Amino acid sequence: MNIDIISVAPELLDSPFAHSIMKRAKEKKLLQIQVHNLRNWAINKHGQIDDYQYGGGAGMVMMCEPLVNAIEALQQQKKFDEIIFMTPDGEPFTQQKANQLSLKENILIICGHYKGIDERIREHYVTLEISIGDYVLSGGELAAAVVVDAIGRIIPGVLNDETSALTDSFQDNLLAPPVYTRPANFKGWQVPDVLLQGDTKKIEDWRLEQSIIRTEKKRPNLLK
Ligand code: 6GU
């Protein structure tokens, strides 16, 4: 899978993909991430990519021309299955959406800044708008990092058996059950007996029961 990202702050995206599972995905060539600096397509030598909004009001708007030139330059190289705009007014991001996107071949992500991007880009190029929650970030980069991480770790072949995504919270609309590691007794706090007895069927039943209890308690809406 290829993910191209257009950003005015590419440095923000250096670190998130350089570790652990994301790093492995890249090393295994299952995921290729390329971050492109929008200023490469600035309209003048001052690096301008934004301008005042028509009708007045505070905040700059990212202009059509640099974005169109960036998008079209990348479209020369690849046919994108999805052109995603990261925006707080987008569709709420979920595990289900991550699952769907992990099956695509080429994705382009546009990170907004300032007051957003000229509406005409959303009308004529963007195929999907994503928000990562009901709060406002200063730019789309951190949100894009969240989305790419969630997608990248479930690309087939990225996780090994040990870290299988099938047991994640949300995969079946249930939160994951509690987990424990050694020692079995720490300061008198005991690990539940069932986990120590090696009966895999019993353990499986216990985990499902705990998942349901936990979901009822913390996120009852998921059960509806
Ligand atoms: Cl995708 N972008 C920004 N700027 N803020 C957000 C967001 C995205 N999702 C939630 N807040």
Q: How are the SSEs placed, and which strands pair?
A:
Elements: E1 2-7, H1 20-27, E2 32-37, E3 50-52, E4 60-62, H2 64-77, E5 82-92, H3 95-101, E6 106-111, H4 119-124, E7 128-131, H5 141-152, E8 185-186, E9 189-190, H6 200-218
Parallel strand pairs: 1-2, 1-6, 5-6, 5-7
Antiparallel strand pairs: 3-4, 8-9
The protein binds 6-chloroguanine.
The site of 6-chloroguanine has 15 residues, from strand 5 and strand 7.
Tell me what you see in this structure:
This protein has 224 residues and is of the alpha/beta class. The chain has two domains: 2-152, Alpha/beta knot (3-Layer(aba) Sandwich), CATH 3.40.1280; 169-223, Orthogonal Bundle (Trp Operon Repressor, Chain A). 29% of the residues lie in helices and 19% in strands. The chain has six helices and nine strands. It has helices at 20-27, 64-77, 95-101, 119-124, 141-152, 200-218, and strands at 2-7, 32-37, 50-52, 60-62, 82-92, 106-111, 128-131, 185-186, 189-190. The strands form three sheets. A five-stranded parallel beta sheet has the order 2-1-6-5-7. A two-stranded antiparallel sheet has the order 3-4. Strands 8-9 form a two-stranded antiparallel ribbon. Strand 5 (82-92), helix 3 (95-101) and strand 6 form a beta-alpha-beta unit. The longest helix has 19 residues, at 200-218. The protein is elongated, with a radius of gyration of 22 Å. The chain starts with a strand and ends in a 6-residue tail after the last helix. The relative contact order is 0.15. The model has no long low-confidence stretch (mean pLDDT 95). Bound molecules: 6-chloroguanine.
